[in-house]
């Protein structure tokens, strides 16, 4: 959701500047401020767009400051690190999951939600082939979805005209992010940030191996293609047939798939830089450190997106 991305990018840079750098506290404040700003947008828009009260978004954030990686998320988009294996397996790569899937399809998350609502035996129900909170939503954390967080919205006559109200004693989902902080290591090779549409089709290990074994050019598109090939196989269809299906109808076959791959090497050295420019079309390399005040380097250290 473009609105969420816009709000969050403003808030995280602002709070990091105020507090002299990035931290878990800065990230939490940015998430909270984004949620509050979206809530204000919902209140303003409700009379003319009552359905906005049921609009929500997962949120996945990655940032690097002083060679420390911060990953924060709400929902079931996922960040996975590819790092070189040690010992006798130096030519292989290991997948390390960096985010938490806030999806009640995961037993641990389902139990967490049930423990928060001991007086509601139907807080999580199995319907339409998956576990859902109140039979509606799979994720337990998000930006937005205010009708599942604020009782005043489901009670609002305007919203009740739009859809069936959900009686709430308390919020059934939250906007509290999970945050991982990790020192970057020399063996860390790349990061994959992707929506659940990719991870429903590919395991962490499969995705990491695809990135590791293939050229950088168009690597995110290669991951999307691999996921769609899995969809086609499950449906006993050809990949070309899946591609022909209109976007609105395609949602019945697979969830949306968004992928970003970031390589963590900085490509120092002129001859190596030259090779990088030739082979990095369609990928993102050398993430910029915009949060620490002593970040080294000039233009070569900027976040570089080549399309």
UniProtKB/TrEMBL annotation:
It catalyses: O-phospho-L-seryl-[protein] + H2O = L-seryl-[protein] + phosphate; O-phospho-L-threonyl-[protein] + H2O = L-threonyl-[protein] + phosphate. Its cofactor is Mg(2+); Mn(2+). It is an enzyme of class 3 (hydrolase). GO terms for molecular function: metal ion binding; protein serine/threonine phosphatase activity. InterPro entries: PP2C, PPM-type-like_dom_sf, PPM-type_phosphatase-like_dom. Residues 1-264 form the PPM-type phosphatase domain. Keywords: Hydrolase, Magnesium, Manganese, Metal-binding, Protein phosphatase, Signal. Residues 1-23 form the signal peptide. Its EC number is 3.1.3.16. It comes from the Eukaryota. The keyword Magnesium applies. PANTHER family: PROTEIN PHOSPHATASE. Belongs to the PP2C family. This is protein-serine/threonine phosphatase. It comes from Gossypium anomalum.
């Amino acid at each position: 959701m473009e609105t969420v991305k816009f709000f969050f990018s403003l808030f995280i840079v602002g709070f990091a500047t105020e507090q002299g750098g990035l931290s878990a506290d800065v990230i939490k404040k940015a998430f909270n401020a984004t949620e509050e700003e979206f809530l204000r947008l919902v209140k303003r828009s409700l009379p003319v767009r009552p359905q906005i009260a049921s609009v929500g978004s997962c949120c996945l954030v990655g940032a690097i400051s002083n060679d420390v990686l911060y990953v924060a998320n709400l929902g079931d988009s996922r960040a996975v690190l590819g790092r070189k294996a040690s010992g006798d397996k130096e030519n292989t790569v290991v997948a390390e999951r960096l985010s938490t899937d806030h999806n009640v399809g995961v037993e641990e998350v389902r139990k967490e939600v049930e423990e928060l609502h001991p007086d509601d035996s139907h807080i999580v129900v199995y319907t339409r082939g998956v576990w859902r909170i109140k039979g509606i939503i799979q994720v337990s954390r998000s930006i937005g979805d205010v009708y599942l967080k604020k009782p005043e919205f489901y009670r609002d006559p305007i919203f009740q005209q739009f859809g069936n109200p959900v009686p709430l004693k308390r919020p059934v989902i939250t906007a509290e992010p999970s945050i991982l902080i990790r020192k970057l290591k020399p063996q860390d090779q790349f990061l994959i940030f992707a929506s659940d549409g990719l991870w429903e089709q590919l395991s962490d290990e499969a995705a990491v191996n695809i990135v590791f074994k293939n050229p950088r050019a168009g690597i995110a598109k290669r991951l999307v293609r691999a996921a769609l090939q899995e969809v086609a196989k499950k449906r006993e269809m050809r990949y070309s047939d899946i591609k022909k299906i209109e976007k609105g109808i395609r949602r019945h076959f697979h969830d949306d798939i968004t992928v970003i791959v970031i390589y963590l090497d900085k490509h120092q050295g002129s001859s190596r830089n030259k090779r990088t420019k030739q082979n990095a079309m369609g990928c993102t390399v050398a993430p910029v450190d915009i949060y620490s005040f002593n970040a080294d380097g000039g233009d070569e250290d900027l976040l570089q997106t080549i399309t």
